[in-house]
Design a protein that fits this description.
Length: 294
């Protein structure tokens, strides 16, 4: 086992806080290991004037960190699981899933507002969020918005938005719950697969036994079910396909959302299965929803 572990992270404040969660966990249970953070800016962080689907998708948030792993400049990388592509390089597997923070989406109002006005403007670049929010706010206009949490909050006042939608998990990790105007239950807006979970990635074939203190079995089962569902339906960065799993005792309850392009509508469905068959559960629900749409 290495005596020094270098953890790679994006440069944003939230990304660093998330990497610190993993760092502190390792240090608590393995004081003999020296843990260092290495930050870098990714392509997804640099290009903020275009939607992700136009510039290459979620991979733009991980490719620089992947390259750093391949070149040996870092030993681990920490990502929000929701930002990771469904296809992971075989030689750079996900080694651990952290305990899940709040998986729900949160609505933030422009300062001075306590609700979204009729015919208001809501900022989101996520088709998943936009599609579901149109049912909750049918009179509103939806406009793209990108950037880290602080950038989006600034844009609320500077660029004419009445509200924006962010993951509650990120706001809570930043200790910014006070800006949340409304939290959407998963029955109202199905979250992105993996939302609220951190993924630790590393090189295949190395000794990563020290990460047992980071791994959360409940999060792992939920992540496997959600990501298998989305992958089976070819859901990528721009796709409204979404999933939320919840472990309840020895079972997993999986809620899936599938977009039907033919009539611009979406369907949701729920399936329950054994925790040990979480991945299979995701594939089964995807197959059911594919069949129901044909």
């Amino acid at each position: 086992m290495k005596s020094v572990i270098r953890i790679g992270s994006r440069e944003s404040r939230l990304a660093v806080i998330q990497a610190e969660i993993v760092k502190k966990r390792i240090q608590k249970y393995h004081p003999e290991i020296q843990v260092e953070l290495v930050t870098m800016k990714t392509t997804g962080d640099r290009i903020l004037d275009k939607s992700l689907e136009l510039i290459g998708g979620k991979g733009l948030f991980v490719k620089e960190l992947d390259q750093a792993l391949i070149e040996g400049r870092i030993d681990l990388s920490v990502h929000s699981l929701k930002d990771m592509p469904m296809e992971i390089p075989e030689d750079l597997p996900i080694l651990a899933f952290t305990e899940r923070e709040d998986p729900r989406d949160a609505l933030i109002y422009r300062p001075g507002l306590c609700e979204i006005p009729d015919r208001g403007v809501i900022g989101t670049s996520s088709r998943r969020r936009m599609l579901q929010m149109k049912k909750l706010y049918p009179s509103c206009t939806f406009r793209g918005i990108r950037g880290n949490v602080q950038t989006r909050l600034r844009k609320l006042t500077e660029e004419g938005y009445d509200g924006t939608v962010l993951a509650a998990a990120g706001l809570k990790r930043l200790e910014m719950e006070s800006v949340i105007g409304r939290i959407f239950e998963v029955e109202e807006i199905v979250p992105a697969a993996g939302q609220g979970i951190l993924a630790v990635q590393g090189r295949k074939g190395e000794n990563h036994s020290y990460l047992e203190c980071v791994q959360d079995k409940k999060s792992e089962a939920e992540a496997l079910a959600e990501r298998e569902f989305v992958a089976a339906l070819d859901g990528g960065c721009s796709s409204p396909v979404a999933a939320h799993a919840r472990v309840l005792g020895g079972e997993v309850k999986l809620t899936g959302l599938y977009y039907r392009e033919e009539d611009d509508t979406y369907l949701t469905a729920v399936r329950i299965g054994e925790v040990q068959k979480a991945r299979q559960l995701g594939a089964e629900l995807a197959e059911i929803m594919k069949y129901s749409c044909n």
